[in-house]
Amino acid sequence: MIENHSHENEKFHRLVQMRARVIWPLSTFLVMALAGNLYLMSSGAALGSTTVFKGGTITIAIVYSICLVFFGAFIAGFYVWWANTKLDPLMKQVREQAEKSGGRKGA
Amino acid sequence: MHNFIKCLGYIGLAMLSLFAVSISAYGASIEGSVEKQETNIYAISIFLIFALSTLGITWWAARRTKTKEAFYTASGGVTPMQNALAIAGDFMSAATLLGITGLMFFRGYDGYILSFSIVVGWAIMLMIIAERFRNLGRFTFVDVISYRLEGHSVRILMAACSLVVIVFYLIGQMVGAGKLIQLLFGLDYIYAIIIVSALMVLYVTFGGMIATTWVQMIKAVLLLGGGAFIAFALLAKFNFSFSEMLQASVNVHPKGQALLEPGGWLKKSSLNVWTVGLTMCFGILGLPHVLMRFFTVKDAAGARKSVAYATLIMALFYIFILIIGLGAVAILWGNPDYYDASGNIIGGSNMVALHAAKSLGGDLFLGFMSAVAFATILAVVAGLTLAASAAIAHDLYAVVIKDGKADPKTELRISKISVLVIGALSIVLGVVFETQNIAVITAFALAIAASVNFPLLLLSMYWRGLTSRGAVIGGTMTFVLTIIIIIFSDNIWVMVLGNEKAIFPYIYPTIFTMPAGFVLMWFFSTTDKSAKANLEKSRFNEQFFRSETGYGADKASKH
To answer: Can you name the residues that pair with A59 across neighbouring β-strands?
Structure first.
């Protein structure tokens, strides 16, 4: 999705790559996890309707949905931690560099 | 002049589409008729405390809302945690609390699709939209889309889309408010929506974004507290065993074990399931009133933290919703206290969460939850109204009609007039749509947001090739297609217009219209070889740099 530019600014390139390596795989993974739940409600409904324990009532679909909600929350927590600690310092450097040179470099 | 004619054309188109849906909804069959109940003194007392407190906050906020920056975005002075609560407060609407629990109570597990898809959508919003959105815009969602696109056509189209999405959302909230108050406060439906509208107008006109944020924050805390109480009290009745609670629900529900299996609502139809899932997940990525909240924080890092905290809060709330929706069956189903003489649940399907509140906490807790639900609606409609007034005053008046040279004071005055007009319109629409299921109405808003707003937002941020021609023609065609399909779907064509069979057999159009949106915008952009298109593409690098780093955004946001 993100196109490669001829930016001269190496740090900017690194910033874009670092972010892209995290957000696109995680977003894809989340969409696939959602797709798994939608599968359990449609074509895979027989599997989704199976109870987790024999003689119990809780179905695989319910457990999967609960896990999906926790997973979404976990990814959100992870991303904000990662971006705060890894991304922000680099972003600050890129901005400072751009300010020093009086404008964006490499566009 | 040419642009002005285009403007009228787009607005006319949007209004015609909306009018068609409004007219067709008039006279719809009643689903779970609502009988006016005895006055609930607790509900009224608690609500009065909420209303007085929030009006006090509005008075305080009014003294800080003298500029358009303060009015639209609280001058960027909201902290991430406050914004997270406000986002959660904005999004955890009456449709969530009342609509989803009602759907699960009657149709079972399938209703939960409206919850888990949303959590996934929020996590995606956090990673691919939030920070870039904050870096590129100032006041509205349309600012971001039109960052590098020439002319006013894009702004007009997106403002029209924003307004349609907001109006649909608003209808859901007004109907919820009217029924709730009729049921619990013993007031007529019409008075109920007049009260909501009046309070909403007061909050927004005088307090702008600051008052709206505080109303949403207070409501979010109360709603989370109330939801947690119902969920824990329900579980406590079954020794804190989720499994035991579900067993009790299965034992009394006519569906039996099928209550917990897929198929109760969407009938295991792949296309229905996928279209609902996609609508909920990607619809939130294009909701103007929610996106607008990202401008209330200082910078992109603030927007990121806001969305992350909001996602955590909402995930927790949706776990409570699962417990309430399925667990309420065990304590309410067949209980004569909650059914009328004809065997229908009192107040209709949207009242399940509140009946559960009464069953678990008595009249006092019912009063509390009723007041919270009412406050929920007020908070959401305030946010919606603010976003609509920004679309009218900022996007259409200041930028399109005045070509960016509007007097800020006049713009602010027009924003406030818009709020009054929207307040009046919301009463009319609340009456017209009285009998519709609020979760379904809200989902229509999400279908348009997912099909038009989201593709346009994503392409404008990440794809150099998007041109204004692609955005306008592709966006308009997708918008019209979405509205037409909604009219031809079961909810309107059969349930409202009374035809035997729907022309479009699925619940929402998103599975077709969202890809169509991407394809149409791509096609009309790539075939655009004009000089204007080249200029727009050449601006992408600058936009991309700013969206990734926030460089230049700080200055723009120092309101």
So the answer is: A51
